[in-house]
Amino acid sequence: MKKLVLFLNKIVFFLNSFAATMLLLAYVLPYVEPKKFAFLSVLSLSVPFLIILNILFLIYWLLQVKKQLLLSLIILFVGFIFLSPLYKFSSSKNIEDENNIKVMNYNVRLFNVFKWIKEENVDQKIVDFINEKQPDILSIQEYRRDEDINLSGYEKFEVISGQKVKNGQAIFSKFPIINSGSIEFPNSFNNAIYVDIVKNKDTIRVYNVHLQSMKIDANADALKNETSENLYRRVSKTFTMQQLQAEQFLEHKSKCPYKMIICGDFNNTAYSYVYKEIKGDLQDAFVEAGNAFGRTYDIRFFPVRIDFLLVDDAFEVNSFKTFDVVLSDHYPIMAKVKLK
């Protein structure tokens, strides 16, 4: 029996070593350009899983009081700075202030036009939810223009494309919009749009960024039909395109003279190169004021955060919330920010 336990522990430690090595390698991914090392970039999608896996190995060795626990413990400690974008142990920050600006980001998945969710009136339920929360600024990805979609009390800027279904991005604002525009990404239906709004005497630039999607169906049956070669090729190409799109966006952003809010669906995690580059010195509202996993994309049993709200140092982040509303494959997120 003792030999069997020793043999089992050797196998577990081998798997533990592999998971720890992959996690350590993943820590450097935000500093590696996808177009140079596309294979490594794929690992960024697995960082939440690798962190959780190493925690489970740590618990396994801890229960046995084995020194092997040091492997995952050290790796997790080294990457502690990477853990906060995955899970916030503190409770959500929520400071009410009359000067708060409520900013919501929501990928609405075309308001369920193709009936992915087998439920009646999903489009109206999305509108009702937004009207209930009354964000001051609303950033929407996969938006479509429809006469039945009525969000009243807002100024709006939208960029719509496509033939079969007219869709794109939109920004709604309760503050006056004095300027607007679009950053068109080449060879892609994705783009970034922006508006300049005026609150009191301050001009604020609001970006809505939608980076290239991998177009991978998270459904288990659909994934079974994907060969590993096709999956790898698609993900590698997407990450390379995301980098080029992020570089184009950053060039535009660098010329902006105003205080800034960046919303969007980056189609990549907080452990990716594009997130690191776009975030730069900005504040991630989830990291500043959120709690728990901050999950924004609907993959069963797996916490994935690919939707972000970023603000510059001109703002204080007074709250952040992810709403558990299943009306899209994304969850809406909202932050309350205040100009200092």
Q: For the CA atoms, what is the radius of gyration?
A: 21 Å
Percent in strands: 15-25%
CATH superfamily of the largest domain: Endonuclease/exonuclease/phosphatase
Name the shape in a single word.
globular
Q: Main sheet, how many strands, which sense, barrel?
A: 6 strands, mixed
Q: What is the CATH topology descriptor of the largest domain?
A: Deoxyribonuclease I, Chain A
Helix content: 25-40%
Order of helices and strands: HHHHHEHEEEEEEHHEHEHEEE
Please, what is the average pLDDT?
A: 90
How many distinct domains?
A: 2
What distinguishing features does this structure have?
single chain; 340 residues; alpha+beta; Deoxyribonuclease I, Chain A; 2 domains; six-stranded mixed sheet; 10 helices
Layout: helices, strands, pairs:
Layout: H1 2-26, H2 38-41, H3 47-64, H4 69-78, H5 80-83, E1 101-107, H6 122-133, E2 137-143, E3 155-161, E4 167-173, E5 177-184, E6 191-199, E7 202-210, H7 220-224, H8 228-253, E8 259-265, H9 273-279, E9 283-284, H10 285-289, E10 307-311, E11 315-322, E12 333-339
Parallel strand pairs: 1-2, 7-8
Antiparallel strand pairs: 1-12, 2-4, 3-4, 5-6, 6-7, 8-10, 9-10, 11-12
Helix pairs in contact: 1-3, 1-4, 3-4, 8-9
